């Protein structure tokens, strides 16, 4: 994966990467291009993924359910960090023509 150094390469709950057989996916938005001072939101997806690794088995203690098996991590979205308009356009759904 090429891109910015702050993009995450680890996965949420250590689930597999992009897997079309799973109904749900996690994607990070590592972007803080709209700030002029004190950036840092771009590190949020990585921090969330790293914190999820501290959950030993990812099983909810009261409901005994786990997202593993129905969840994949597609990584951080490759967004242009040069303009707000460019980022907004990149976030819109693309038509499959």
Structural commentary:
With 97 residues, the chain is α+β, with helices and mostly antiparallel strands. 18% of the residues lie in helices and 11% in strands. The protein has 2 helices and 2 strands. It has helices at residues 44-52, 84-91; strands at residues 24-28, 71-76. The chain has a two-stranded parallel ribbon with strand order 1-2. The longest helix has 9 residues, at 44-52. It is globular and about 45 Å long. It starts with 23 loop residues before the first strand and ends in a 6-residue tail after the last helix. The model has no long low-confidence stretch (mean pLDDT 81).
Quick synopsis:
By secondary structure, this protein is an alpha+beta fold.
Please supply descriptive tags for the structure shown above:
97 residues; alpha+beta; two-stranded parallel ribbon; 2 helices; 2 strands
Q: Helix coverage percent of residues?
A: 10-25%
User: What is the 3D shape?
Assistant: globular
- Helix/strand order: EHEH
How many alpha or pi helices? 2
Low-pLDDT residue intervals, each spanning 5 or more residues: none
Largest sheet: 2 strands, parallel
First-to-last CA distance: 26 Å
How do the strands line up in the largest sheet?
Answer: 1-2
Kindly report the average pLDDT value. Answer: 81
Q: How does the helix and strand content classify structurally?
A: alpha+beta
Rg of Cα set:
15 Å
Strand-residue fraction? 5-15%
Please report the total strand number as a whole number: 2
């Amino acid at each position: 994966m090429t891109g910015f150094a702050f993009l995450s390469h680890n996965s949420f709950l250590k689930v597999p990467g992009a897997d079309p057989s799973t109904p749900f996916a996690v994607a990070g938005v590592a972007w803080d291009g709209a700030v002029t001072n004190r950036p840092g939101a771009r590190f949020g997806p990585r921090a969330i993924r790293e914190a999820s690794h501290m959950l030993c088995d990812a099983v909810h203690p009261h409901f005994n359910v786990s997202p593993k098996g129905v969840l994949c991590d597609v990584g951080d979205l490759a967004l242009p960090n040069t303009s707000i308009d460019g980022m907004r356009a990149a976030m819109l759904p693309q038509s499959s023509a």
